[in-house]
Specification:
By secondary structure, the chain is α/β, with parallel strands linked by helices. It has helices at about 10-20, 40-50, 65-75, 90-95, 95-115, 150-170, 190-200, 220-235, 250-260, 285-290, 300-315, and strands at about 1-5, 25-30, 55-60, 75-80, 120-125, 175-180, 180-185, 205-210, 215, 220, 240-245, 250, 270. It has a domain at about 1-180 and about 220-245 and about 280-295: 3-Layer(aba) Sandwich (Rossmann fold).
């Protein structure tokens, strides 16, 4: 029996696949390795996974249903961890078709293959973006999410509703995970932590939106992985979980800690709020604690240290 991890060359998918491999699981990775950000970084992640004998990688697109079905048959896949998606709130403003294809069409194929192959558990990625303009914090899974403020968020809301319909109709066990601002080693170059570090080291200004009046529930990758793995190991009929650090940190504080870790004072380009962005995120994780045993352990201060250390090593700066 095997486990499929889609988006295995991506940030979270790579870490989840690696953790599963390290405990002896047979993992089938599935990723189209698109060019949304640096493909070399994706291939570098994948090369680490390919060092494990119990890993098999398919450079395929989830929109090709026949290939997906064939892969399931070849490997007797019984569990699915679907982490592939077109990410990014701002990118969705200009490129909605990419989200229609990667987040809606691809997810339909994931649901269909899980239905026909009778998987034991489907764990899939949602996002804190679904909370849109919610002002009451911390964000609870019980909140109304029917008013997303970006198309990216709208596709994630759709994924949750689509999964619910498949559970209702076909009994597929599903858990949707709303990730809150994930960062850490092997992170995405399009996200603030990576962008800020890169620009600061190149003596370039960093873009600080909403004039720095932003707060985020920054969640370290190891903590996220622990929640994902627990969701894989504990199937539910249909549940949605917040996975965050259960704290909200001012963006300027994060920049300050990056300055300390890098020994560089950032040049700041203060800008207004971007369309589709939210001012504050903060996860209520009581449900994940109770049902998954989820307990984030990494402070943002320590997490930034780990990220900077990895960044310098990966880019041969030490």
């Amino acid at each position: 029996m095997s486990m499929m991890v889609t988006g295995s060359a991506g940030f979270i998918g790579f870490h989840v696949a690696k953790t599963l491999l390290e405990r002896g699981e047979k993992v089938v990775g599935y990723d189209n390795v698109n060019d949304y950000y640096d493909q070399d970084l994706k291939w570098a992640r994948n090369s680490i996974l390919e060092g494990y004998d119990n890993y098999k990688f398919y450079h395929k697109d989830l929109c090709d249903y026949e290939s997906l079905e064939k892969t399931f048959d070849q490997h007797n896949i019984t569990r699915m961890c679907h982490l592939a998606a077109q990410a990014g709130v701002r990118y969705s403003i200009d490129n909605p078709q990419a989200y229609q294809r990667s987040n809606l069409e691809a997810f339909t194929n994931v649901l269909e293959v899980c239905r026909h192959k009778e998987v034991d558990n489907l764990v899939f990625a949602s996002s804190s973006s679904v909370y849109g303009g919610c002002t009451e914090i911390p964000f609870s899974e019980d909140y109304d999410i029917t008013h997303p403020i970006s198309f990216y968020a709208a596709t994630k809301v759709a994924n949750e509703v689509m999964a619910h319909s498949y559970h209702h109709l076909y009994g597929i066990p599903c858990s949707g995970l709303r990730f809150f601002t994930v960062y850490g080693p092997w992170g995405r170059p399009d996200m603030a932590m990576y962008l800020f570090t890169e620009n600061m080291l190149q003596d370039k200004p960093i873009d600080v939106f909403n004039y720095g009046n932003m707060k985020r529930d920054f969640t370290y990758i190891d903590d996220i992985v622990s929640g994902v793995i627990s969701s894989i190991d504990n199937p539910f009929d249909y549940e949605i979980f917040n996975l965050g650090n259960h704290t909200t940190v001012n963006l300027m504080y994060v920049i300050n800690k990056l300055e300390e870790a890098l020994g560089i004072e950032a040049k700041k380009n203060m800008l207004p709020m971007q369309p589709g962005d939210v001012e504050k995120t903060y996860a209520d994780i009581s449900k994940a604690k109770n049902m998954l045993g989820f307990e984030p352990k990494t402070s943002v201060e320590k997490g930034i240290e780990h990220f900077v250390e990895w960044y310098k090593k990966y880019h041969d700066l030490i």
